[in-house]
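Q&A log
Question type: sequence-to-structure
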Amino acid sequence: MRFDEGTDLDTSQVDDQRGRGGIGGRVAVGGGGVGLVGLLLYFLLSQLAGGPSSPLPNGLPNLGTGQTADDTQINQSCRQGSDANTKLDCEVVGVDNSLDAYWSDTFARAGQPFRKPRITFFNGGVSTGCGAASSDVGPFYCPADREIYIDLGFFQELQQRFGTQGGPFARAYVIAHEYGHHVQNLRGTTRQVQAGESGPASGSVRLELQADCYAGVWAKHASTTPGPSGRPLITDVTDADVNAALDTAAHIGDDYIQSHLGGGRVNESQFTHGSSEQRQKWYSSGYQSGDPSRCNTFDTPDLG
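Response status: OK
Response body:
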């Protein structure tokens, strides 16, 4: 995957809170607010790194007070596709621009109103409309303020701890998955799921698998979706790129995390995001069809 070197980037939806101080309090996680790895990542890091052992939402560490955004640097450094090809934060901006364009058009074609989500970069911890969160939670979407939050260090964590291949399209899958939660929030799907549900056919798993499918749908159209300049922002999506995204999906399935990074035992009753096979299946389903209507994980008895 590459970005069109001369295409403009739009940073107007980005809040940059990196290096601006920590936060305190507790995270309020519910109705899809947890993102890519969410609770499983939190529990995993708590066990392996000697962190807090209490379950969310009561066990996050106190991270201090005071938090503001300063977008000057990112506005100046992320101007064109060439910046997205060389800088990680600009890469995420470029992917977000493409997602904005695709989903704005999709909602417009369906005659439905659309509001772009904001995206916040942070280090260590952040205060959100869903409460306070630490980086241990992983990337997440908060329905209350319609914003995606990400500590960019998570991508290194995926490769070093989870053993993923990495790469720009794998990282794009992470962002597109969180964006999928925004789509669910706008469509009212998020409200169908009760907080705390778990199990292989639970509402939580269905919500996450649908977000994977939405990520695949966008990936199908990524190289033809026009960016802020009117021409496609993303180019040269290859089979290797798609395989890298599928590799990431395989390494963040509930069963993989439990067996390889947890206690070694797979407990399906604790599934909240779906198995590796399921996550790959639904991302592939979205990618192959390119049709969001094929992502209705709530109306099928067979999740894979």
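Response note: The beta strands are 2-3, 14-16, 118-121, 125-128, 131-134, 140-142, 147-150, 234-235.
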